[in-house]
C-alpha cells in the first residue's frame, strides 16, 4: 500500500472532528473510533530528544488513544546519568525501547517494533509521516528545532524555557504564526487547578487592586548527572554525536560535567534557575496580570552571586530583581533564600494569595470559600496539558500555553540575566518594540549568532 503523504494525513486529521460530530452521516465505526482510532485517524507523534524531561512527558502521549508515537530522535545512542537522580538511561535506543514495549503490552503484540530511532531529527522528519513532535532537547536547541518543524507544518509541543534569547523567541512565534501550526509550551502549571484559581481570583480583584507580586524560584545548583566534578575535556564517548548535540551553540570541548542536564547551569546552553523556573512562575504572574502579550517597563534592584563567566557552571545560584509594570504593579523575583518557592499576590488591606504546586493559601482564609461566577472573568481552562495540545491539533483552537505568552514570560528572565551579566543597576524596557532603551550592549545580548549552518528562517 502506498504510504500517505503528510499533507493528506493532516487534512484528514483536521477534518476528523467535524466528521465525528455527524455520526448519522459518517458512522464512527467507519472511522475506526472505538477505544482506539484507526491508524489513519491517529496523530503521529515523534520525540526529539529522549532524556530526563522526555521520560516524564512521553507516557502522557502514549496513554492517549489518539496518538501513535512513531519515532525518537537523539544524537545520543544510549548512556546513563539521566533522570533527576542521575541513575537512569537515556538516548534514542532507550526511547525506542520504551515506546515499543508500551505498545507491545497495550496491544498484545509482543514483537511490536513500530517506533524507529534516528540520530538526526531532520532525517527523521524526512523519512517519517509525522504530524506533531515533542521537543525535549536542551534549551540551546529549542529555537532551531521549533522553526524547522514549523516550516514543515508539524505541530509542536515545546519544552520550557521557550528560548535562549529574546530574539529567538520572537522568531519562533513568527514561524508558528506564519505556518499556522498548533503550539503548546510545556508550562504545565497553566493546566493545574490551583494556579488557574489564583489567576481568576487576582483578575476579579478578590484581593482588591493588585499591588505587588513576590516570587521565589529555586536557587543553588543541582548536580543532575552526578558528574559535576568531571570538568576537564575528555574523548567523546562512543555513540554520542557531540557535534550534533552542540548544534547551534558555541563549540567547546566535550566535558562529562555538562551532560546530561547539567548544561542548565551554563549560559552557552541555558540560563540557570532564573530561566528554568522563571519560565513557570513568571508565566503565571504574567497570566494573572493579563500580560500575555506584553511585559514590564523597567527591571532593577539586581543582586546575584554570578560566577566568573569562564567557569563551567556560570549561572547565578542566588539572585534578586524587581520588575515594574506600566500600571505600577511590582514583581519581585528572588531565590528561595528570600521567599518560599511559589508566588504571592498582594492586594489591598493586607489581602493576599500564595500559590505553588499542589497548594494555595489565601489571606483572609475564608476568601477561598468564594466562587468565581460565570459572569465574571474566567481564564482558559485546561486540566491535561498534553491532552489540551492534542485537542487543539484537532480543533484548530489556541492552546493553554501559547507561544506568544511563553515568549513574553521568558523574555523577562532573559532580561534579568542580561542585566546581571552586564552588571547593570537597571534596564528600561519597551515591551512593544522589544528593545532596551539607551543600552546598546544590552540590546546586543537580545540575540546570539548560531554556530555552523543553523539559521532561524
Distance between the termini: 36 Å
CATH superfamily of the largest domain: Dihydrodipicolinate Reductase, domain 2
Low-confidence stretches: 1-8, 16-34
Profile the largest sheet: 9 strands, mixed
Describe the structure.
- The chain is globular.
- It has helices at residues 6-20, 28-31, 52-63, 92-107, 121-127, 142-151, 166-179, 193-203, 242-246, 272-276, 278-288, 385-395, 403-422, 440-444, and strands at 43-48, 67-73, 79-82, 88-90, 116-118, 132-135, 155-158, 183-185, 212-217, 298-304, 319-324, 330-335, 342-346, 352-356, 359-363, 426-430, 435-436.
- The longest helix has 20 residues, at 403-422.
- It folds into two domains: 6-188, 3-Layer(aba) Sandwich (Rossmann fold), CATH 3.40.50; 190-379 and 404-444, 2-Layer Sandwich (Dihydrodipicolinate Reductase, domain 2), CATH 3.30.360.10.
- It has 457 residues and is of the alpha/beta class.
